């Protein structure tokens, strides 16, 4: 079985890459504002771990909403960075690449704290796995850290600080803004670990 990981370049997915050592990591540029930084961070982390890295590009920016799209959040948005059907979109695009290269199982970096998003909950992961397994390629999906918060994941993974330092978590740009929900989570995770990110 060939295993893939949806790698955003953030702390969570980089930690899962170190912990689970997939055969390939797939980063998706779907038109999000920090796409280039996410690709750069993912590529550097994969190089440090010796993991094959694939990039998928599909500009869906006209469909976006919130911080990652550079627009006001939609009326139904639970949080400011919400993008309609984001995880479903990314998993579909990554799944298309996965079928092409022979991946049969995809991991995602959902955590217990991602429950603010409907597509970050265990029932979504189970449903998308069932859906994708019914299609050609029979891909299944799992979220190995779904019961953990970010600090618990980092500790469980054993990832070295110098590899984790590659992570890019900003939701609004290629340089960390320091104030979006992604940046705040990033710094709070370092704090919870008792580490200075600098």
TrEMBL record:
Pathway: Purine metabolism; 7-cyano-7-deazaguanine biosynthesis. One of its GO terms (biological process) is tRNA queuosine(34) biosynthetic process. GO terms for molecular function: ATP binding; ligase activity; metal ion binding. It catalyses: 7-carboxy-7-carbaguanine + NH4(+) + 2 ATP = 7-cyano-7-carbaguanine + 2 AMP + 2 diphosphate + 2 H(+). It comes from the Bacteria. InterPro entries: QueC, Rossmann-like_a/b/a_fold. The keyword ATP-binding applies. Its EC number is 6.3.4.20. Keywords: ATP-binding, Ligase, Metal-binding, Nucleotide-binding, Plasmid, Queuosine biosynthesis, Zinc. Pfam families: QueC. Belongs to the QueC family. PANTHER family: 7-CYANO-7-DEAZAGUANINE SYNTHASE. This is 7-cyano-7-deazaguanine synthase. The lineage of its organism: Bacteria, Pseudomonadati, Pseudomonadota, Alphaproteobacteria, Rhodospirillales.
């Amino acid at each position: 079985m060939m295993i893939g990981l949806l790698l955003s370049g953030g702390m969570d997915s980089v930690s899962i890459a170190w912990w689970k050592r997939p055969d390939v990591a797939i980063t998706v540029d779907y038109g999000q504002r920090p796409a280039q930084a996410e690709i750069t961070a993912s590529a550097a982390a994969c190089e440090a771990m010796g993991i094959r890295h694939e990039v998928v590009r599909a500009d869906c920016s006209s469909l976006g909403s919130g911080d990652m799209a550079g627009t006001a959040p939609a009326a139904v948005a639970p949080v400011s960075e919400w993008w309609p059907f984001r995880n479903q979109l990314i998993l579909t695009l990554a799944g298309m690449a996965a079928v092409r290269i022979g991946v049969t199982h995809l991991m995602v970096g959902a955590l217990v704290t991602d429950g603010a998003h409907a597509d970050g909950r265990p029932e979504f992961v189970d449903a998308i796995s069932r859906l994708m397994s019914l299609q050609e390629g029979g891909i299944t999906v799992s979220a190995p850290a779904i019961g953990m918060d970010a600090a618990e994941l980092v500790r469980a993974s054993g990832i070295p600080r110098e590899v984790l330092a590659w992570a890019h978590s900003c939701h609004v740009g290629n340089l960390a803004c320091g104030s979006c929900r992604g940046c705040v989570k990033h710094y709070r995770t370092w704090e919870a670990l008792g580490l200075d990110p600098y």
